[in-house]
Every structure is written in structure tokens, then in C-alpha cells.
Amino acid sequence: MTGNQMAGSEPAPDRSCFVEKLSYYTELSPSDREMIAEFERNEEKFAARRRVLHAKQDRSRLFILASGWAYSWTQLADGRRQVENIHLPGDMIGMRDSAARQATTNLS
Questions:
Q1: Maximal CA-CA distance, the chain
Q2: Which residue, 19, 10, 12, 13, is CA-closest to 89?
Q3: CA-CA to 3 of 20 to 30 Å: which in 19, 43, 63, 68?
Q4: Alpha carbon of 96 to those of 33, 50, 72, 84, 85: distances in Å?
Q5: Which residues contact 92 (CB under 8 A, 6 or more apart)?
């Protein structure tokens, strides 16, 4: 893995990994596909093994994982990491923290 790609740079609605994932659960109209694909409009690439989000950092956005994989984790008192979630392409990351002002987990 050379890195993770979060979100997408103006993806075609039929190429959106998020649209593809949601399509497994419900039928989406062309306008739904277009609107949902907008979530992936601003792409950022992150190097492998880089921490993308720190716990207690202001949480100001959501991520959609376009390729690679990532994981959310917390630091235990003894220094070990506890993996909270593993994220795969098409996953929206950060929704769980959307009601909080700060991220509750780290994202790598």
C-alpha cells in the first residue's frame, strides 16, 4: 500500500466508491448518485502509516475512503492502541463523532 486516498476529485457519479457502497442497500436515482458523489469532490491523499486525525482534535469534517484502508484507534493508559474500527473503500469516516466537537478516536 503506497497510501490512502480520502474523498475524490470530482468523481463521475458511476465511479464514486461511496455511491457504489450505498447502491448495495438501496436503489439510487441519477440525481441521488450525482448529489452523493459530491461528498467525494475534494480529494486528499495521505501517506501510509500517517495519522490523519488526532483524538481530541477539533472534528470539522468527514472522510470517505476511496482506496487503501485506515483504522480508528484510541490510546490506552498503558500506551497500547485499541483498534476501534477498520475502514475500507467506500466507508464514511467521522460520522460517529459528528455530534461531538472533538474527535473521540485517532485515524491512521
A1: 50
A2: 19
A3: 19
A4: 23, 21, 11, 11, 11
A5: 18, 39, 62, 63, 64
